Amino acid sequence: MINMTQPKLYPRGKILWVRFSLNGEVIKRSLNIEDNKANRKLATINIIPQMLLKVHSGEFFNNEKTVVPTVDEFIKKSFDMHKNVRKKKTHDDYLSIYRNHIKTIFGKKKLDQIKPSHIKLWQNSLLEKGLSPARIKNIRCVLTLMFRDALEDEIITKSPLEHVKVPRILPTQIKPFSLNEVQEILSNSDGWLKNFLATAFFTGARSGELIGLKWEDVDFVNKEITIKRSIMNGVISVPKTINSIRTIDIIDSLYPFLESQFKLTGQKNTFVFLNRYDEVFYDIKRIRDTFWKRLLKKVNLDYRPIYHCRHTFATLMIENNEDILWVSNMLGHINSSMTLSRYAKYVKRSEKQRAKFLNGKFE
Q1: DSSP string, 293-321
Q2: Any bridge partners for residue 69, and if so which?
């Protein structure tokens, strides 16, 4: 005997779905029609009565049976679907995330077998391994897109991620270098490293943009640098956003460092910064994990990510009353509001000595 509740209509996005209970099991099915007044009437008068007949005859479930793929099987389809609309480095990063953090736990499970409790336990295990909440949020993106694709293909009716929160992400603590610290860092470095760090401190360019810089992008006559590429994990691509493709000024403080670097690599007519083998740097990690960490230890400064060179440029310039639109353009931000919201609270206008930064002199 079939124990069935009366089917009820409900929207999922713009599509009309039906839900009912059959022998204690909740059944949800898409009607594959848009949710509007006319279609609700059609469903009530025509579709649902036919559905009831098929349920009692058994035909409904014969037609509705779907082979649910495993995560390993469906993730490949999901990656292929989005491959051509993602940057290559993003695609490669997602593949790496799947192999390193998802495949072992979920790869053999069918999509409809993954429960919210599985997601919570998995996130906890990542935290225990020392991964930051921000990194876990990035890792979750791979699963989020996969489950979204499965929902659109009507393979599943809901995502187990819906009821699982991302671990709390604490605000990033930015600690810009002071002008004296910038001077100390540059005074204790030499060669290409000194010129690289000066370019980082005096342009606010991102690390990947700096190692992707070519001499053809540097205009000594007009004192301008064009930012149009970035390098990460050996992959050369366009910068982070559309606004990141920009032309920035060579301020007076930077000019002598670029001249010095030109003597080292300018005649090679290639990338501005090269390693000891005259090759472009594969990734900023090579500079960060060796030269940068060693240098900070040498000058007795607590470790800060090399990205803080960019933060330092922004705070020093804003503190010394530079035009916020100019600072925003130098950083490649979408607008000045973004720049102020990120850096205004780090401004310390009482330390007037930082004004010397604009004169290209250190005392």
Answers
A1: HHHHHHTT-----TTHHHHHHHHHHHHTT
A2: none
Instruction: Please provide the distance, in angstroms rounded to a whole number, between the alpha carbons at the two ends of the chain.
Output: 92
Closest CA to 227 of 144, 310, 293: 310
User: Measuring CA to CA, how many Å separate 18 from each of 28, 42, 236?
Assistant: 6, 13, 49
192-228 pLDDT tens trace:
999 999 999 999 999 999 999 999 999 999 999 999 9
Mutual orientation of helices 133-152 and 116-128 as an angle, nearest 10°? Answer: 150
Angle between helices 308-319 and 191-203 (to 10 degrees): 50
Burial 10-44 (b: 16+ CB within 10 A, else e): eeeeeebbbebeeeeeebeeebebebeeebbeebe
- Residue-averaged pLDDT of the chain: 87
Q: Which residues fall within 8 angstroms of residue 33, CB to CB, at 6 or more apart?
A: 15, 16, 39, 42, 43
Q: How many CB atoms lie within 10 A of CB 195?
A: 25
Helix pair angle (191-203, 179-187), 10° resolution = 160
Residues 6+ apart with CB under 8 A from 81: 149
Q: Which residue matches tokens 């922004």?
A: 314
CB 236 within 8 A of CB 212: yes
Contacts of 75 (CB under 8 A, 6+ apart): 98, 102, 142, 146
pLDDT digits (tens, 9 = 90+) for 287-343: 999 999 999 999 999 999 999 999 999 999 988 888 889 999 999 998 888 888 888
Cα-flanking dihedrals φ and ψ of residue 289, to 5°?
A: -80, -10
Rg value, the chain, Cα: 28
Query: What angle is formed at CA 295 by the lines to CA 178 and CA 185, rounded to 5 degrees?
Result: 30
